[in-house]
Amino acid sequence: MQTEEQQALEVEESVQLDEHTRRDTMTINMGPQHPSTHGVLRLVLTLDGETIVKAMPDIGYLHTGIEKTAEAKSYYKSLVLTDRMDYLAPLCNNLGYSLAVEKLLGIDVPPKAQAARVVLAELQRIASHLVWLGSSAIDLGAQSVFLYCFREREVILDIFELCSGVRMMTSYIMPGGLQADLPPGFDARVREFLEMFPAKLREYHGLLTNNRLWIDRTKGIARLSAEDAVALGCTGATLRGSGVAYDVRKFYPYSGYERYDFDIPVGSNGDVFDRYLVRLLEMEQSLRIVRQALDGMPEGAWQVDDPKIVPPPKYEISSNMEALIHHFKLYTEGFRVPVGEVYVRTESPRGELGFYLVSDGGPRPYRMHVRAPSFANLQALPTMIEGQMIADVVAAIGSIDIVLGEVDR
Amino acid sequence: MAEEQQNAHALAWPASPQAEATAAYVREHCGDDLVDVADYRGETTLVVRPAAIERVCRVLYDAPALRYTFLSDITAVDWPEREPRFEIVYHLMSLETRAVIRLKVRVGDDETPDPEVPTVTTVWPAANFFEREIFDLFGIRFAGHPHLTRIVMPQDWVGHPLRKDYPLTGIQLPEPHWGGQVPFSAPLPKGIGRQTLRTADGTEEPPAARDPGEPKRAKRPKRRAR
């Protein structure tokens, strides 16, 4: 039998306890082996019943030290590492890295390379969004969307294979232009895709956008206000879903994006549904850009005319002494880059992808830092899901579209 | 020759007027804290005193015509032969005016191998992960950071991998029976090759090493097939 005093003390104690350490809450792990965490993300969730009181993302399970490795590789070889960061959008990473190296070198690529880069980056954006759409839909139980999305992505990967011989880790965009000229039939294949894809987009809209179940699972879920999104450094669709029209392609145009006519879809509620819609509408805009870039595709060189930067064609090596020397120098030492530092922003499918390159005048980057959009976007996850139900965590993770290869690097 | 080349590039990449306005604004409001202004490839860098970084960031955040409300990135660069050794690099952006600026502080010398800088999480909460990453990979501490722990490396990791004196191959840890140099019959060193338990505060406590003489635990009996 407790005295009144003891009871009062106990009550006082329970009030003094921090809300996160209340005894009636429960702390559980979600991940790193959870199928809906899109990789190896671990979330430490403090639950009150089914409501999330506190969430803490724990990352690093896929840390491969890419920034450290790049310091030991030549600029040309570091390009290959960038493919492995955001493995759903390798071409966008190549583009960001190449632009940074070119800015350090002080060179400009030929117009054909610029237009081809835009076509490829936009196709890559569509492919990446398709993986996101499929996987976040299957997380919420929409199985068939997953299959359709991968069917269409296959067409894009086939186009990449046509260009570079590789489906995913292409390294096709490189400092100084492209690895090879666009192959014959490229134009026709891309146009075929442009013809086919709008109907597929309508199909996705039909499957999800007006689907009562989808709306129930996404509308009003995992809200993020515009102020929070800006303060937490969100970019890409995560920021635009909250109503902030920041797109690097419009703000700081690169690769000739200022020449193309396209819109920036913006949400208003900042919930899962808005982020979903922003990405779907973005795919339409990407189609517009691809069409314009294809129509205006100039003829001519696809690389800079500088044998000190781009390797000579293979057939010259056996007949031309100079080409052999350049080839040897490029693949053993690499090209030297003037002393300096640059920060180059590009718009990857996930948001602002920044490459900060520091050169000490040598053939290897002194420091390569990648501002990974997923890394910054992940910071907003606790703000989104605190106070929500545990089942909505899956929807929230899907809606910020993280790629753990990029988060951990 | 090299200088000539650099000048040629400087002509091709003019500094943006907004960046110039930013430099002037900082000079006006906290001129004592501004160490240096540099332009390269059209990107402007303001070098400020380490102790003043939070104040300068706040001034830039509140600057009425500039409004640097968005923190793009924070990172660090290690220059072991320089004094101060580390550069911490901040990339700021304004969503209203599209102005961009780079801030830099230089810290760390022989007396302070693990230097400390004020955090900017008070200005932009976005700095949280970036500063944790720098702490993890460079060993620079951020005073006032809400949760300064390692972020990508394991909590019990020794050393800071992105420092230049950290070997690229990593640090060689004793490995059980490495390359056959240790006889396979020899017992493993304490704590190697056994799973450790992670405690709530992030430290790891290796379980008590099993005495090699102790009999092995009996195997669980197989479930009988029905």
Q: Helix/strand-derived class of chain B?
A: alpha/beta
Question: Which sequence of strands runs across the widest sheet of chain B?
Answer: 1-2-5-4-3
Average pLDDT level of chain A: 88
Q: Structural class of chain A, please?
A: mainly alpha
Task: List the total number of helices of chain B.
Answer: 4
Strand content of chain B: 15-25%
Task: Characterise the protein shown here.
The complex is a heterodimer of chains A (409) and B (226). Chain A contains 18 helices and 8 strands. Chain A has 409 residues and is mainly α. Chain A is globular. The relative contact order of chain A is 0.18. Chain B is an alpha/beta fold and 226 residues long. Chain B has a domain at 18-163: Beta Polymerase, domain 2, CATH 3.30.460.80. Chain B has a 5-stranded mixed sheet, with helices on one face. The model of chain B is unreliable at 1-11 (pLDDT under 50). The A-B interface holds A 59-60, 63, 65, 67-69, 71-72, 103-104, 106, 230-233, 244, 246, 251-252, 338-343, 345, 352, 354, 356, 358, 366-367, 369, 371, 375-376, 378-379, 408-409 and B 2, 5-6, 9, 12-13, 40-41, 43, 45, 69-73, 75, 77-78, 89, 91, 95, 98, 100, 102, 124-126, 128-130, 133, 137, 150-154, 161-162, 166, 168.
